[in-house]
Amino acid sequence: MKRLSSSDSSDVWISMCSGKEEKVLKKSQGYSIEFQAMLDSLDQEDHSGEEAGLITEKKRRLSANQVKALEKNFEIENKLEPERKARLAEELSLQPRQVAIWFQNRRARWKTKQLERDYGFLKASYDSLKLDFDSLEQEKESLAAELTELKVKLRRETSESSNHCAVKQESPLSESSEDGKPGSCSESVKEDPNPTPELPPSSAAPPLPLRYGSCSTSPPPPPPSSSRGTMAGRGYYHQVRMEENLPSGFISEESCNFFSVDQPPTLHWYLP
DNA sequence: TTGTGTTTTATTGCCTCC
DNA sequence: GGAGGCAATAAAACACAA
């Protein structure tokens, strides 16, 4: 498009020239006399075109009614067939190209809005998941603390009972320990070979298999590298890390049953 | 009134499809 | 190869605070 210096100081636009020409004209202001003369001649040509009744139009916004009609049509179908374009253009007294451009821009706006909506939805989903994760993490920590406490208590009771037996064994009137009830000494001293506060060396404890909702000793395949950046991928590593953080000796058969999941794990992120 | 940010209209260049 | 769509961009039109 080319901007003309009209006599009535209103901006007149001719839609027949390209934007590149306009840029050239704008940049050329204040240039050589020859070039200015050329611009003047162009202006004269444009004025003569105006007088000849060529398409002279201000760049202006569409009227409210036009926009309303276009919006209505966009709701029906956001793509424009040639027939509909021509009909709309005729109904709204617009150029078919204007209608096409309006639809194109409208689609772009719709896409932007859609992206914003999707982002909002994903963010809400993420926030909710994070809350869940945080509460589970807290629960895990309190359970671990409780477990430690219980183990200390158990150890104390065990040592007390063994002391009791040592005293009784010296006495000929000591009670028989054959019934195996609590308080019996023959086995209880041997119990608890793995006191918790003094964690055994890693060589003493066999490597614990990682569990993924079951007690299988074979670890699952590693996550695909492509999923490492995703939430699913992070979930995979979180589960591993959480179990690695458990106190040594915690993952036994009991603990396995305690934490095992009845349903098989969903590895949808891993399965193709 | 003016400077500035936003919205709307339009262009350009590239890509895909027929 | 032409038509049409899309992303990026330009620039006018508009809104609004200072």
From TrEMBL:
One Pfam family it belongs to: Homeodomain
Species for this entry: Eucalyptus globulus
Alphabetic keyword roster: DNA-binding, Homeobox, Nucleus, Transcription, Transcription regulation
Homeobox domain ranges (all copies): 53-113
Family: Belongs to the HD-ZIP homeobox family. Class I subfamily.
Protein's UniProt keywords contain Nucleus: yes
InterPro entries given in the database record: HD, HDZip_class_I_plant, Homeobox_CS, Homeodomain-like_sf, Leu_zip_homeo
Designated name of the protein: Homeobox-leucine zipper protein
